[in-house]
Amino acid sequence: MPRLRKSPRLADFDYVGPLACHLTFVTRRRQPFFSDPHLASICIEAMQVTVQRFCATVAAYCVMPDHVHILVAIEEGTSLTDFAKHFKQLLGFRLKRVTRQPVWQISYHDHVLRREESLLDVARYIWENPVNEGLVPLRTEYPFSGPRELLEQA
After folding, report:
1. Which helix (H) or strand (E) holds 112?
2. CA 97/CA 33 separation, integer angstroms
3. CA-CA distance, 102 to 84, in Å (whole number)?
4. Does 5 reside within a domain?
5. Closest CA to 154 of 117, 126, 115, 112
6. Distance between CA 113 and CA 136 in Å, rounded?
7. Rounded (5°) CA angle 80-114-90
8. What's the rounded Cα separation, in Å, for the pair 113 and 96?
9. CA-based max dimension of the chain
10. Number of structural domains, the chain?
11. Rounded distance, CA 62 to CA 46, Å?
12. Closest CA to 129 of 41, 84, 66, 57
């Protein structure tokens, strides 16, 4: 009998706001779907739809060629699990219409921020991804990171 994959979620944590979390979604087989600017733009649009639907706030995001980082704050009573599921489903559906193939790796990585952790430090980490990967010399030059007004001030 095949072993079932163990859930990466914490068993004793409900993932309901208020909370801030750094989410990372990885493409299937690390395929660089988001190297295509059109697909990266679809990703950002799906994130914005999800943020509006869940009344969330995005402190930082970065759409890398083979993964997506989102630093999101959700309000009292909102489910982070539902937020992540909606984003993956919406974007997966939209991208599959274009690419004709599944986009996502199973599940996602989450890091719920503790009170002592700096939101700005995590945002800077996210924004520095394209620089660290050699895609651009300065984080402000990467077109698929944001929100731009926060990125350029930090």
Report:
1. strand 109-112
2. 13
3. 17
4. no
5. 126
6. 28
7. 20
8. 32
9. 54
10. 1
11. 13
12. 66
What are the φ and ψ backbone dihedral angles of 82, each rounded to 5 degrees?
A: -65, -40
> CATH number for the domain including 100?
3.30.70.1290
d(CA 6, CA 63): 27
In sequence order, the β-bridge partners of residue 62 are 69, 145
Instruction: In whole angstroms, give the CA distance from residue 103 to residue 32.
Output: 10
d(CA 54, CA 47): 11
Query: Taking the mean position of all CA atoms in its chain, how far away is CA 75?
Result: 17
Within a domain: residue 46? yes
| 10 falls within a domain | no
**How far apart are the C-alpha atoms of 60 and 122, rounded to whole Å?**
8
Q: Per residue of the chain (154 residues), what is the pLDDT tens digit?
A: 555 555 555 566 678 989 999 999 999 999 999 999 999 999 999 999 999 999 999 999 999 999 999 999 999 999 999 999 999 999 999 999 999 999 999 999 999 999 889 999 999 999 999 999 999 999 999 999 999 999 989 8
14 domain residue, yes or no: no
User: Phi and psi at residue 58, in whole multiples of 5°?
Assistant: -100, 120
The residue segments making up the domain with residue 46 are 19-153
Q: Give the integer Cα–Cα distance in Å for 61 and 83.
A: 15
In single-letter form, the type of residue at position 54 comes to F
